[in-house]
Structure to design on (354 residues):
């Protein structure tokens, strides 16, 4: 039996949850943030959005008691956590208007490039903000289970990580991405790069290629990447295709973590038939032993959003010693994303034609 009864899948909740003020009332707030906070019993003090009608409609839907007329009014809520669910291009301006010492959660990504991420990190330092980025895949039950299995040595030494996506993503749900020069890596595969960093550390270098597809005007929707850990014998690869529109049979959304003593397989159920999704799955095996399915206590959406907020609140209260997705750590994920894009511009080794 490889699966321990107490395999960690949830982050503990704060003892005294702070009120949450959400800035931005788009799809991610409606589909993930508010359902997660309602499930966890976190108090939401109010919402703010430049589109007041949209904010009022969302407040009515979730029973949020207040819609703020201005952001200054919103962030003046005593002891609040400011949950910035606005587009990344607005992050720096919003952070610059927060009271010094505020506690804040930023929706990913941390800006659209490393220059923006660095500016965000700098303003957080200058204003002494306790700030995290919502890289919530780390906090999903399936991935917390993998991380705990690795910590306990159940897989031995990690030597191979593979991310494989071959599915259909309804890109029409994200029309704002049409104007972006950078799409797939910074908007989607960033989750996987951040998760890999959390268990394998920062790679030394990266090789990446990302391209579009004839069915869409989006800049990139298919990605291949190899993370290089130098003399270490770890092999880390990503193969991402969002356009396998040939039925469910061979569609896939998986992570494989392989150690020298065991392995873990993760099914990212949310991505199959998104946004309805399928159940997430986690399987573990020891070398020479059978595969065992782990019963999961939650799903990626919305449950993982509970974990990242819980960690931030507990850190601010002194209950957690580590802020897992702090802007300081998230900057390194953005640096890896930036390196992937820089790799796109570098030529490969030419193949002789004669």
């Amino acid at each position: 039996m490889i699966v321990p009864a107490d395999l960690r899948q949830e982050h503990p909740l704060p003892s005294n949850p702070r009120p949450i003020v959400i800035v931005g009332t788009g799809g991610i707030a409606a589909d993930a943030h508010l359902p997660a906070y309602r499930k966890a019993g976190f108090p939401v003090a109010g919402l703010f959005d430049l589109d007041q009608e949209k904010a009022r409609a969302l407040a009515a839907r979730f029973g949020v008691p207040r819609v703020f007329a201005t952001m200054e009014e919103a962030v003046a809520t005593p002891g609040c956590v400011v949950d910035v669910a606005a587009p990344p291009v607005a992050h720096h301006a919003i952070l610059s208007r927060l009271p010094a010492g505020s506690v804040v959660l930023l929706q990913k990504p941390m800006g659209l490039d490393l220059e923006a991420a660095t500016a965000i990190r700098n303003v957080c330092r200058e204003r002494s903000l306790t700030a995290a980025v919502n890289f919530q895949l780390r906090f999903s039950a399936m991935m917390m289970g993998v991380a705990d299995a690795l910590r306990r040595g159940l897989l031995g030494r990690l030597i191979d990580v593979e991310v494989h996506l071959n599915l259909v993503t309804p890109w029409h749900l994200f029309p704002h991405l049409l104007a972006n020069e950078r799409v797939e890596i910074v908007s989607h595969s960033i989750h996987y790069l951040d998760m890999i960093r959390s268990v394998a550390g920062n790679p030394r270098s990266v090789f990446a290629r990302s391209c579009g597809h004839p069915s869409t005007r989006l800049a990139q929707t298919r990605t291949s990447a190899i993370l290089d850990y130098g003399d270490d014998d770890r092999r880390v690869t990503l193969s991402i295709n969002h356009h396998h529109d040939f039925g469910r049979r061979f569609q896939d959304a998986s992570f494989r973590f392989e150690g020298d003593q065991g392995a873990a397989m993760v099914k990212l159920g949310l991505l199959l038939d998104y946004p309805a999704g399928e159940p997430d799955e986690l399987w573990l095996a020891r070398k020479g032993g059978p595969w065992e399915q782990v019963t999961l206590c939650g799903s990626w959406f919305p449950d993982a959003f509970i974990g990242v907020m819980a960690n931030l609140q507990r850190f601010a209260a002194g209950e957690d010693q580590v802020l897992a997705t702090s802007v300081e750590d998230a900057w390194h994920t953005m640096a890896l994303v930036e390196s992937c894009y820089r790799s796109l511009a570098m030529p490969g080794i030419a193949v002789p034609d004669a």
User: Anything to note?
Assistant: The two ends are 56 Å apart (CA to CA). The chain has two domains: 20-137+304-322, 141-297. The domain at 141-297 is CATH 3.30.360.10 (Dihydrodipicolinate Reductase; domain 2). The chain has nine helices and 13 strands.
